[in-house]
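Render tRNA-dihydrouridine(16/17) synthase [NAD(P)(+)] in 3D.
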Amino acid sequence: MAAAAKLVEKDCDAIDINLGCPQSIAKRGRYGAFLQDDWSLLQKIVTAMSQAVTVPITCKVRVFDSIDKSIEYALMLQNAGCKLLTVHGRTREQKGPLTGIANWEHIKAVRKAVSIPMFANGNIQCLEDVYRCINFTGVDGVMSAEGILTNPALFEGINPVTWEIAMEYLDLVEKYPCPSSFIRGHLFKIFHKIFTLEGNNEDRELLATAQNLNDFKQVCIRIRHKYLPFHEGRIHFQDDGMTRCGFDLILPPWICQPYVRISPEEHTQKMELCKQQDNAKRIIEDPDGIPISRKKMKKLRRYLRRPTKPDAVTNRKRDICTNDVCPNPCGIKCAYQLCKKCCQNKCYNEDCFCEGHDCRMYKA
């Protein structure tokens, strides 16, 4: 880490260590939020990097369930040499559908404990949230992640039209090229509300398969052509309830707006309901009303897929090969009631033919 810091020392004003990533890949790679279990290692990393370079070393972290432990964690990083701390008010378990609300109380407590500059992260959906967060926590600045992706003009305090901000972004991409996967990801975030409407499935598919800058621009042009008459008021837009967003604020889908998840409690209830419905579908009973296990059901389905064999074949007893020294069962259609190997030997030695085994081995 210290060697990596020295490589970029002359090209930046500070070096940030991301200790907040909660993704599974971070767990497998032992980095991000999963390093918060090894304080001694983190202390060595921050100290080594601070001593190796002249630019400040900063850290971004997530909180623990306990406020006291979160404070102790922040003080450890400060003492190790961290010059600025960004605190995300969620634990590493709060991710995806279980993200929930960030806890500003934790951030406020950490702010009072540390003496270095500090930023807050979490619950920033609009510019007013920035001011509320600063006033409540007393931090020196605010960081936004998901909010700024869905509305890149968040810190300007406006909600721009999606196709305008998207085209502005594509102009920057033209000037500073980047991989198409990066572009696709950003545009999906900007157009996230529009793509929840079924009528835009074709545009969504076009964006998903876009390969170059012209394809990406074509998506913006198509969406602009479709929604500009609504934006200008020439056509009335029928709100079907999909554009409603917290506090009864209604923003049309072509306007950049926050991405609002359902609460973790709602998600858990929804998953439980889906599980119950799935289990109900799987329960199959026999004629006596006894549930059939999945293993038995699998065997029954496999049996039903087999073609029905003639009675003469299915009822025939599998006799042992008539060769006294062979313990193998004889072939069902063998003319000599031998197993395949014995039948091949007989046909070869006696210049005979078995239609059942299709043995045509004659001596030269």
